[in-house]
Amino acid sequence: MRNCFKHPLFKSILISSLAVASFQPFAQGVSEAKNMALTGYNDLQGRTAYQPTIQKQGNRWIAYVGHHGDYKLNPLNGQMENNGTSIIDVTDPKKPKYLKHLPGEEGKAEQGGAQMVRVCSGATLPKADKSKFYMLRVFGNQSHEIWDVTQPENPSLLTTVVKGLKGTHKSFWECDTGIAYLVSGNPQWRTNRMTQIYDLSDPTKPVFIRDYGLVGQNPGSSGAVPIALHGPISTGPKGNRVYFGYGTNTEGIIQIVDREKLLNGPKEPTPENLLYPQISRVELPPMHGAHTTFPMLDMEFPQFKNSLSGNKGDILVITDEAIQKECLEGRQMVWFMDISTETKPYGVSNWALPDMPGNLCKKGGRHGAHSSNENMTDVFYKKIMFFAYFNSGVRALDVRDPFAPKEIASFVPAINKNTVALETPASSAGAKLPYTEAATKVAIQTNNVEVDERGYIYIVDRANTGMHILELTGPAKKIANWNAAIK
Asked: What share of residues in the chain are helix, strand, coil (percent, to 5)?
């Protein structure tokens, strides 16, 4: 028996077994995790991914993922296709099934693809066919489209809302009213990203409402042009507010706007009319932007529960976006702003993942915040928020006390055969930056995160790694009341 250990065949088997054991975390798609576990995975055909949106359709749950520009093989039809929109059945999150890829605009990264996607049920939209589901997506930087996705395996283009643009990005669609805030680049305006508002309550008949942006971006203005819009979040008629975030990693601006005045006030883009719906405007420090502006309204402040006043209020969570590799920019992080007195917002706390220990700035790719979840599902809203953090995966924060947010869970996927080293973006000044060998390292680049009403967490990767479906475990699971949420 002892001699069998010397047999060449046994040695080969032993070495293979050790290799499998050594790379088991890689095989499972996990690099490191805390109070968060991997439930399912889909490679998204190896496409660089931006925005995931999860929609319940009858008894099915469907994930729609927008992609940055690139050119990849679609194994479903054997054709090379420009990156566009991936449609995945995630009804069983352990076994997500890729259903369809819709090609987007030709081009690389921000110049192509179909990055942004939103979905509404016809049963919710006021004037739509109640039996249908509708997808609003960008087509690269040139247009916004509406698709019938009632049969997600066989979507069909309904209409192009607007075309001939010079930019698009992170739009927002109110499913209960049909009002859509489209991040667009009207060629007549002085910026490539402002807001075009449409009534899409009947998705087959888009109705233009108005153009909107900052004073100085509008046609006919002069002087310096304020930084471009990144995206809005609306609280609809009930909350009557739209929160606009401008900039990403520099010169950011937060704008709180009265929704009713925005939609029904004077619409010619004069300085006076643009200022009419504005409640307040906050200019961020030069090295910070506003990628995502997420409202947490009517919160209790546990630190001040015994105070006569100020023991509850409204919070706006602002997420910067890291742009440059290796932290060669200002620190990009998460900010909590008290907006209880809307005309006088002020910062109350912030959170960032330090690059030490671990020297994360040199891990490869970008290190820093990018985006938060935007679904306000009861499972997580005002309790836990999730933040995409590029080479540090997704981070979950306990936000029940917004004056002292704390990390309670995290998940960093492992790289796989599809993961690539991202190209270096140009600096804002156009100068060559002193990138080291870390600039060419292959690293996870968790790009965006979203959650669904069942309590699952979806992260997608900018460096082609795919989509990971996650669930909370341990103490974090108890905060979310996970068992009550999962069906």
From this structure: 15, 40, 45
Q: Return the beta strands (E) in 6-59 as ranges.
A: 30-34, 36-42, 49-57
Nearest-angstrom CA–CA distance, 136 and 172: 9
Distance CA 487, CA 470 (A): 15
Q: How far apart are the first and last CA of the chain?
A: 53
Q: Cβ distance 67 to 48 under 8 Å? A: yes
Give the model confidence (pLDDT) of 258-317 as tens digits: 999 999 999 999 999 999 999 999 999 999 999 999 999 999 999 999 999 999 999 999
Domain boundaries, the chain: 30-485
Which structure tokens are listed for 3? 């001699």
* Contact between residue 99 and residue 89 where contact means Cβ atoms under 8 Å apart: yes
**Binning pLDDT at 50, 70 and 90, where does residue 429 land?**
very low
**Per-residue pLDDT tens digits for 196-218:** 999 999 999 999 999 999 999 99
CA distance 351 to 332: 10
Number of Cβ atoms within 10 Å of the Cβ of 248 = 23
Q: What are phi and psi of 358, to 5 degrees?
A: 110, -15
HSE toward the beta carbon, residue 170, CA cutoff 13 A: 27
Nearest to 402 by CA among 321, 281, 318, 342: 318
pLDDT tens-digit profile of 111-162? 999 999 999 999 999 999 999 999 999 999 999 999 999 999 999 999 999 9
Strand, coil or helix: 256 = strand
pLDDT at 14: 35
**pLDDT tens-digit readout, 62-95:** 999 999 999 999 999 999 999 999 999 999 999 9
Which pTM was predicted?
0.91
Residue 379 contacts residue 455 (beta carbons within 8 Å): yes
**DSSP string of 180-228, one letter each residue:** EEEEE--TTSSSS-EEEEEE-SSTTS-EEEEEE--TTTSTT--SPPPPP
CATH of 30-485, one of 2.60.40.10, 3.40.50.300, 2.130.10.10, 3.40.50.1010: 2.130.10.10
